[in-house]
What we know:
This protein has helices at residues 27-31, 54-66, and strands at 16-18, 36-38, 45-47, 72-74. By secondary structure, the chain is α+β, with helices and mostly antiparallel strands. It has a single domain (16-74), classed as 2-Layer Sandwich (Alpha-Beta Plaits). A hairpin with a 6-residue loop joins strand 2 (36-38) and strand 3. It is globular, with a radius of gyration of 11 Å. Residues 18, 22-28, 45, 67-69, 71-72 line the site of iron/sulfur cluster. It comes from Methanosarcina flavescens. Residues 14-41 form the 4Fe-4S ferredoxin-type domain. Keywords: Electron transport, Iron, Iron-sulfur, Metal-binding, Transport. InterPro entries: 4Fe4S_Fe-S-bd, Fe-S_cluster_ET.
Amino acid sequence: MADNTDKVAENVPGPYYCDYSCIACHLCVDTAPENFKMNDDDSNAYVYKQPETDEEIELCEEALDLCPVNAIGNDG
Length: 76
Ligand code: SF4
């Protein structure tokens, strides 16, 4: 389970976030490219836009489920 006290600094405010346990595997960026990005030095992913449509929410939930280290959280 992601740790909402350890959120990556670049996350935009809102329910979805990545924490620093991210191992930079890129899976969330590939799954939900409208919402996740890698940071500049490619060391972790972050949420650059909260999902707005049902499709985006579905893909963010898929990324959350698939993240190999459970670094994605949803405080919604
Ligand atoms: S899927 Fe998880 S470990 Fe992989 S880049 Fe995204 S947050 Fe990081």
